[in-house]
Every structure is written in structure tokens, then in C-alpha cells.
Design goal:
alpha/beta; three-stranded antiparallel beta sheet; about 30% helix; single chain
């Protein structure tokens, strides 16, 4: 499948798949989307509403992809002195020659952290790696259907390709796995807001709320495991 590095609306880069007319991040702004969906309504929400939560915070990312969400979470972990264990699941790892063309460190104005961004991608799959003082990463090269975790995570970043191109990733079967992987009171956030996605989440037990979406998108979803 053809792949191209393109610049999104906020100046940050992403990977575009012309055959699907799909990209790894919002065309309106990759960094803006990541902060809005996964940091503001995910990590910060968890920290603010779970005052009794003891570090380390365990995060599962569905669709490690370019590593943008992981990198921004690393920056937040260091800024907040918050210990995070981060697991990124990816069936089709992005190649290093593509990673080297992404401009996230410069757009985030953390060129001094560029080495950490590359270290995330150069670290071995399946072996946990301490990337920074507060951020440990474990990358898992497998399909989402293979996830078997139970009562493991405080937070899930659900960042799979959209239901338009991969509807099988947004089913009750997948969300049942997400529900089981979360601890009680665990949170799942995603950029998606389709009614079918919300209903699939609710069918497996999630309490789901609609929230204002990132730039270019009206709504997003956040789900709680009761």
C-alpha cells in the first residue's frame, strides 16, 4: 500500500494512505488531536477524577503507529513527575525511514527530546524499555484480536484506523477485550463518535459519554468501566 508523509493543519506531520484516503492522524492537526483526545480527555481526566489512583498509571494504546500519542504522554509524565507504564499494540509497525521524516519533536518545541522519540521506535518489540525517568514503554507487535489482558490498565487510548476502512476493529468483540483489559473505574478514550461505535461500547458494559471533538471533528467518545 502506498504511503506518504504529509503535513496536517497544525503543521505537524502524519502518514497518509492514498488507497484508503486515510491517515494516521487528523488532517486538521495531528498534535492538536492527540492532546485533545488522549491527553486532555484521557490522561488529565483520569488524574483529576481518580485522586486515589496510585502510580504507576498503566496505559494501553490500540494502534501505536507513529508513536505520537506515546511521545506526548512521555512529555506529560516527565512534566507531572507521574510514573507511567505504557503498552503500545501495533500489527504493522511503521518503518524507521518514515519515523525519521516525522516532525513531532520540532513541532512540539522539544528538539532536545528527539533522542527519546527515536529511542521509543528503536527499542525492541516485546521487551519493556525505560525511555525516561517516569516513562516505561512496552511495544507489542500483534493484532488487536490477540489481546488477552485482564484487569490490567487504568486507561486505554483507542486510536485504530477509522471504522470506514476497518470496521472490524470497532465491534463488540474488540470492545469486550478492551472492557476486560481495563481495571474497574478504568477509562477508554477515542476520537470516534459514530453511533455504532457508541452502541458497541455500551453493549459490553461501558458507560459512554459524548464530548466535544478536536479541531475539525464535532464529537468524540469517552467510556468508563463501572
Amino acid at each position: 500500500m502506498d504511503r506518504k508523509i504529509v503535513i496536517t493543519g497544525d503543521g505537524s506531520s502524519t502518514i497518509h494512505l492514498p488507497d484508503w484516503n486515510e491517515q494516521y492522524h487528523s488532517k486538521h492537526g495531528a498534535i492538536q488531536e492527540a492532546y485533545h483526545v488522549f491527553i486532555k480527555h484521557g490522561l488529565h481526566h483520569l488524574k483529576e477524577t481518580h485522586s486515589d489512583l496510585k502510580p504507576p498509571i498503566s496505559i494501553l494504546e490500540i494502534g501505536f503507529g507513529t508513536g505520537l500519542n506515546a511521545f506526548i504522554t512521555l512529555l506529560e509524565a516527565d512534566k507531572l513527575a507521574l510514573t507511567i507504564n505504557y503498552v503500545g499494540v501495533e500489527g504493522y509497525p511503521v518503518r524507521m525511514n518514515e519515523i525519521n521524516q516525522l516532525n513531532f519533536p520540532s513541532q512540539l518545541q522539544v528538539k532536545d527530546k528527539e533522542g527519546l522519540f527515536k529511542l521509543m521506535h528503536e527499542s525492541e518489540w516485546e521487551i519493556p524499555k525505560q525511555i525516561s525517568t517516569y516513562f516505561k514503554l512496552a511495544k507489542q507487535n500483534k493484532f488487536f484480536t490477540e489481546i488477552q489482558d485482564s484487569n490490567t490498565y487504568n486507561l486505554i487510548y483507542f486510536d485504530a484506523f477509522g471504522a470506514r476502512v476497518q470496521p472490524e476493529l470497532w465491534t463488540e468483540t474488540i470492545f469486550q477485550k478492551m472492557y476486560e483489559a481495563l481495571k474497574v473505574d478504568g477509562v477508554l478514550v477515542t476520537y470516534a463518535a459514530k453511533g455504532s461505535v457508541r452502541r458497541a461500547m455500551q453493549a459490553v458494559g461501558f458507560k459512554v459519554e459524548k464530548l466535544p471533538g478536536p479541531p475539525g471533528k464535532r464529537e468524540m467518545l469517552r467510556a468508563l468501566k463501572l
